[in-house]
Amino acid sequence: MRPVTPRSVAVIGTGAGGLVAARELRREGHKVVVFEREDKVGGTWVYNPVIESDPLGIDPSRKVVHSSLYASLRTNLPREVMGFREYPFVATNKTQRDPRRFPGHREVFEYLNDYVSEFGLNELVRFGTEVSYVGLVEEGKWKVRLRIGEDRVDEIYDAVVVCNGHYTEPRIAEIPGIDVWPGKQIHSHNYRVPEPFRDQVVILIGSSASAADISRDIAAVAKEVHIASRSVKKDGTLGKLPGYENMWLHSMIENVHEDGTVVFKDGGAVCADVILHCTGYKYYFPFLDTSGIVAVDDNRVGPLYKHIFPPFLAPGLSFVGLPLKVVPFLLFECQSKWIAGVLSGRLVLPSPEEMLADVEAFYLTLEASGVPKRYTHNLADYRFKYVDWLAAECGCPPVEEWRKEMFLEASKNKLVRPETYRDEWDDHHLVSQAHEDFGKYLS
Length: 443
Ligand code: FAD
Hints:
The protein is α/β, with parallel strands linked by helices. The protein has nine helices and 22 strands. The chain has two domains: 8-169 and 281-401, FAD/NAD(P)-binding domain (3-Layer(bba) Sandwich); 178-277, FAD/NAD(P)-binding domain (3-Layer(bba) Sandwich).
């Protein structure tokens, strides 16, 4: 076995990614400090009723609210699938907890806090500490500049693991005529409760999991909800949605006008009060200075070997949690194990040139299949294969068969029962298998 070298490692963020990175790095023997600008762990899962001064979330001078959670949010994965492999997300009999299979957001926040207590992670975290600069200094070390209230402090680390999340910087749809359109605009990042939309005519752009939830939330109080979606088919699915008196599905918006009219590409037109952009987010690393070695280009963060290591800055700089359309906590856990092992020298990376060649080959495959750059980190077609690859690198078993099957079953169930998939299901046998497996990790 290769000698294990402990490193000093700065982790940015205490979302699920930063927490599991902290645990895995310390387990490997590294000296870990986790920086968190807020006063709680949980990242996305810290619900904040406050919305930003700019509801579109694009004014650079706004005070940023990190989380994009809305009050009614329940998980879109069953808890058995969603939890870390080595710390299953099981219902507990503690008071005021939510035992449902698809629990409300507060339950995930509590689970992450349980994780912190279980592994004593709090002692590694410096709260109220924002990382404002990360850059390479001599001998491959990293300078990390911290903003603590009015104070600025520079510290030096062997490595930095970036876990700052990517659901905070809104991406906005470009709409011809929007400058003269008189209505309000908001991004789902700043959506919390439906009440402000009472009796309004709302245009909601998007078709993600949040778009589906939010449209139903709003339909309960709004006068009309019109969903503009890029992914609608030309086969007659457009029009009034079954089961609703006040919700319609349209193609994308063609343009908007001074008199409040919104015209859709399918020819329909509606006079609307609000446009709600459920159009996703941008990767954003305002603190990172790599002299251009790592850049964000059309939402591709690169070049990164396996979505984690920049070939020519590895292993000192790494990213946890960039992939999309994945099972996040499990993926973060495996990425973190790999980073921890590589940093200690127990696991070995290919040469920088080989890593870069791998990334370039990956980009060429995307191009050849017509996948736009902005979907570089979308792992929908190989989400488990990716985690299995990482697991194999780390000498861990592949993703459990029950988890893969349960994910598929839940996805199918969501299509069959879009309104009730969180409360009705048929995969009871898989739940039993999961719980049998959890026995290994639960004392
Ligand atoms: P985050 O949770 O965003 O944490 C990042 C942390 O970094 C934050 O605490 C932030 O304060 C801190 N930070 C950022 N910048 C700095 C800085 N410069 N200095 C110091 N600290 C900093 N996943 C699921 O598995 N199931 C679901 O049902 C699900 N639903 C979701 C619903 C919504 C609306 C959204 C937005 C996401 C959902 N996700 C879901 C995905 C979810 O984001 C991930 O599961 C996961 O919580 C992301 O963790 P993270 O650590 O990558 O980032």
